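User: Quick sanity check before I run a bigger batch. Here is a single chain. Can you write out its predicted 3D structure?
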Amino acid sequence: MKVSALIKERRESSIRHSSSAIRYSPVPTVDQVMVEERAASFGKRSIKTSAKVAGLKLAVSMCDLTTLEGKDTPGKVAYLCRKAIQPIEAKFDVPSCAAVCVYPNMVRHARKFLGADSPVNIAAVATGFPSGQYPLRTKLEEVRRTVADGADEIDMVIDRAAFLAGDHAKVFDEIAATKEACGPAHLKVILETGELVTYDNVRLASEIAMQAGGDFIKTSTGKVSPAATMPVTLVMLEAIRDYFFATGIRIGMKPAGGIRTSKQALAYLVMVKETLGDDWLNPDMFRFGASTLVNDLLMQIARSADGNYQGADYFSLP
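Assistant: Done. Predicted structure follows.
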């Protein structure tokens, strides 16, 4: 699931690879009250019957199954890959998950299990995850090595210290350099919105990440609270919409951290549809950073088919 040739061509012909570009892109001030009210409204929508089942299955297909622990092993990664390929029994007709997300040194183990033609992508966190407080040379070497080991996608973290200090050009240049180091791999730019303090900062960081070459913008590492929230995600979706209107380039979105229930996932899908439209309702353009979410989605899907709730212990842990 790579960026299309058309998008690559447009990206190469754009002026985004100059840090001076960020000085001339107007970034609107975010109305906090309106954003929070509108975000809350999406959670009140009622989705029933076949539309709900379709939404649940779509959400499964958008999940990046994630394990980012110090005790991760090759066996645990293989187990995660197996679940991503077939999340539940075939009779439920549930698609594969979009990706597995692991630390860089686990990429080669994931690639060995998945092979070259798997429908499941391999995403890896990089650039000094989760702090981003590494020298740029070290960050770029980590990215190159991770892609060489078989990663399809790189989830990088921005330097929040530089951003909050007002050194936006440094943030831009590091993202652009990371994009170049990714080669053919997809780049997701993690803003770590819980540390950016304000919606205006989230909006500006989103703009910088898109102009610098990010294929996706992502809310969080999952290591900081708050992580993904509906209002923050809405601010980022609106930035993506405005960027598309200005450039014709579609940027993906990935909320990560804190999304645990099917009801929450469906509310996010409604928000995406009403903000960006159907073109973003697919795994190429929207992802959930998921650890516990998948099992709740599967429980709801099984209930819709069998008429009974199954206990959590009927499902393998993510």
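The longest helix spans residues 230-247.

User: Great, the batch can go ahead then.
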